[in-house]
């Protein structure tokens, strides 16, 4: 006699359905327009797909995520937080203008390679790469060289092959435009000092303007009061004097 089939028994069907449901929850399908291959973890290939944002439903066991040559403009906070095994992330040749603080939360410990080259990044939040151990490519971006960028770079392990291609597109000091950032910093330049000097100058200018305004008001007040005093004196002078009034009174008395 054949054993009853599990699929023909209500309890067996329920158990099978539950197993499939758990499996589908634990493993996410490959995102649409991407190609996924298993190589001791999932390699997700989404290159040149005209994507405008990072796919939200990525397999949790993704170890390599290739997103180059798309139209992605920002990396939001905790965009990759579920990818605890992610080792390589390629976001090069996009239109990235911003990377939010905490964008790499959840992958900071596992990530070993991060490519942000050939984008439109001019600056980054100071805590963007906190606790990140990855080797990072930042070349060919329109960087603005100032204090916060200097502090960000101090926290990074830049890719040695492209480190000299991370250049100042603009700068708080015009003379450093076009120069590699690391070479400028290695020469002893401290952009944070320029920031403080600029702040000091601004404060001095503000204080000078305040002093000038107060002085101008005092001068105006004094001149205005002097003018009023002069007019008052002229008015008093125009009044008949007391002696003249007395003489007129005596004359009138003698007549009567």
Automatic annotation (TrEMBL):
Residues 1-29 form the signal peptide. It is found in: Membrane. It comes from the Eukaryota. Pfam families: LRR_8, LRRNT. GO terms for cellular component: plasma membrane. Coiled coil: none annotated. InterPro entries: Leu-rich_rpt (IPR001611), Leu-rich_rpt_typical-subtyp (IPR003591), LRR_dom_sf (IPR032675), LRR_TM_domain-containing (IPR050541), LRRNT (IPR000372). Its main location: membrane. Residues 29-64 form the LRRNT domain. The chain crosses the membrane at residues 201-222. Keywords: Leucine-rich repeat, Membrane, Repeat, Signal, Transmembrane, Transmembrane helix. It is a single-pass membrane protein. Belongs to the LRRC3 family. This is Leucine-rich repeat-containing protein 3.
């Amino acid at each position: 006699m054949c054993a009853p089939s599990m699929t023909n028994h209500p309890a067996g069907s329920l158990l099978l359905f539950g197993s499939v449901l758990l499996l589908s929850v634990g493993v996410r399908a490959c995102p649409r327009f991407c190609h996924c291959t298993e190589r001791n973890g999932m390699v997700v290939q989404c290159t040149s797909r005209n994507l405008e944002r990072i796919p939200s439903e990525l397999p949790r066991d993704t170890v390599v995520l290739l997103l180059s040559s798309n139209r992605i403009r920002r990396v939001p906070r905790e965009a990759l937080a579920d990818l605890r095994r992610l080792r390589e992330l390629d976001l090069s040749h996009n239109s990235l203008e911003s990377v939010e603080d905490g964008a790499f939360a959840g992958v900071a410990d596992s990530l070993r390679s991060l490519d942000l080259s050939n984008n439109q990044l001019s600056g980054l939040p100071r805590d963007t790469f906190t606790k990140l151990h990855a080797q990072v490519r930042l070349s060919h971006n329109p960087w603005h060289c100032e204090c916060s960028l200097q502090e960000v770079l101090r926290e990074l392990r830049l890719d040695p092959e492209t480190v000299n291609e991370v250049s100042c597109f603009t700068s708080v000091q015009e003379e450093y435009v076009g120069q590699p950032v690391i070479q400028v910093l290695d020469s002893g330049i401290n952009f944070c000092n320029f920031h403080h000097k600029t702040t000091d100058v601004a404060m001095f200018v503000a204080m000078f303007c305040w002093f000038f305004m107060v002085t101008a008001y005092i001068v105006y007040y004094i001149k205005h009061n002097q003018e009023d005093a002069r007019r008052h004196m002229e008015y008093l002078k125009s009044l008949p004097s007391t002696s003249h009034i007395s003489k007129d009174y005596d004359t009138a008395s003698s007549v009567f």
